[in-house]
UniProtKB/TrEMBL annotation:
It comes from Variovorax paradoxus. This is ATP-dependent dethiobiotin synthetase BioD. SUPFAM superfamilies: P-loop containing nucleoside triphosphate hydrolases (SSF52540). One of its GO terms (biological process) is biotin biosynthetic process. It is an enzyme of class 6 (ligase). The gene is bioD1. It comes from the Bacteria. Its cofactor is Mg(2+).
Length: 246
C-alpha cells in the first residue's frame, strides 16, 4: 500500500501550518483512514489545568482519530516560545533524530496516515548540526508547503521550494493561507505562485477569525497528493538502498 504520510512545512512561522495540518487530518479521518498528527518538536508551553500543554500539539490530536501517547506525537516538548535550538539549550536538552525517527515509526504502525508538522520554516535549527530540513530528509516524506499570503511570500515560497527539491524531496503540493486579509493583489500573487512553484495547489484557506480544522478542510483537496506519494516512496527506497551500500 502506498504510504499516506506527509511532512508539512511553511514559508515562515505563524502562517497557518497547524491549521492546514489539522485540516488534512480532518479530511483523512473523514475518509475512513486512521489518521494521526505528529509535531516532533514543539516550543512554547502554557499551563492549563495543572498541566503544561502546547496548543499546536493539542489541535493536531483533536483533528486526528488515533489515540497515541504524547511521547510519540511530540517527542520534544519545550517550554520557551523560541527557536527550538535555543529553547532546548535553555533546558539542557539535545534534540536527536533517532528519538524522533523511533516515534514516527511507532505512529506509522498505529495509523494509515501520519501528518508530520515541522517547526516554523523549512530550515529551522534543532541543534548545531541538525535542522528541520535534515529531519524531512531522514523521514523521506513528500512535502506539503504552506504559503502564508502576505507581502514577501513569493520569495519565501520559491526559496522554500528550491530548498526542498535541492535535498531530493518531493514537493507534493502547496496550500495558500490567507494570513493577511488586507494583502494587495492576492489573486495575482496566487497566479504567480501557480506558474512558478511547479507543484499542485491543494487549496486556498481564507482568513478565519477562529482557526478551525473542519472549516479549513472545506477549502483543501488532497486528491492531487496521490500522484506524488508513489514518487516519494520510490525516492525514499532509493536513498535507503544508497545508504546501505555506502
Amino acid at each position: 500500500m502506498t504510504r499516506r504520510h506527509w511532512f508539512v512545512t511553511g514559508t515562515d512561522t505563524g502562517i497557518g501550518k497547524t491549521l492546514v495540518s489539522s485540516a488534512m487530518l480532518s479530511l483523512l479521518a473523514g475518509s475512513g483512514l486512521r489518521a494521526v498528527g505528529m509535531k516532533p518538536v514543539a516550543a512554547g508551553l502554557e499551563e492549563a489545568g495543572g498541566q503544561w500543554r502546547n496548543e499546536d500539539v493539542d489541535r493536531l490530536q483533536a483533528a486526528g482519530n488515533v489515540d497515541a501517547p504524547l511521547a510519540l506525537r511530540c517527542p520534544y516538548l519545550l517550554r520557551a516560545p523560541m527557536s527550538p535550538h535555543l529553547a532546548a539549550r535553555e533546558e539542557g536538552v539535545r534534540i536527536a533524530l533517532a528519538r524522533i525517527r523511533s516515534a514516527f515509526d511507532a505512529l506509522a504502525t498505529r495509523a494509515d496516515a501520519v501528518v508530520v508538522e515541522g517547526v516554523g520554516g523549512f530550515c529551522v535549527p534543532f541543534c548545531d548540526d541538525f535542522d528541520s530540513a535534515d529531519l524531512a530528509v531522514a523521514l523521506g516524506l513528500p512535502v506539503v508547503l504552506v504559503v502564508g499570503l502576505r507581502l514577501g511570500c513569493l520569495n519565501h515560497a520559491l526559496l522554500s521550494a528550491e530548498a526542498i527539491r535541492a535535498r531530493g524531496l518531493v514537493l507534493a503540493g502547496w496550500v495558500a493561507s490567507m494570513v493577511d486579509p488586507s494583502m494587495l493583489a492576492p489573486q495575482a500573487n496566487l497566479q504567480t505562485l501557480r506558474a512558478r512553484l511547479g507543484a499542485p495547489l491543494l487549496g486556498v484557506v481564507p482568513h478565519l477569525p477562529q482557526p478551525d480544522a473542519a472549516q479549513a478542510a472545506r477549502h483543501i483537496d488532497l486528491r492531487a497528493l496521490r500522484a506524488t506519494a508513489a514518487q516519494a516512496a520510490r525516492r525514499a527506497l532509493a536513498r535507503e538502498a544508497s545508504a546501505a551500500l555506502g
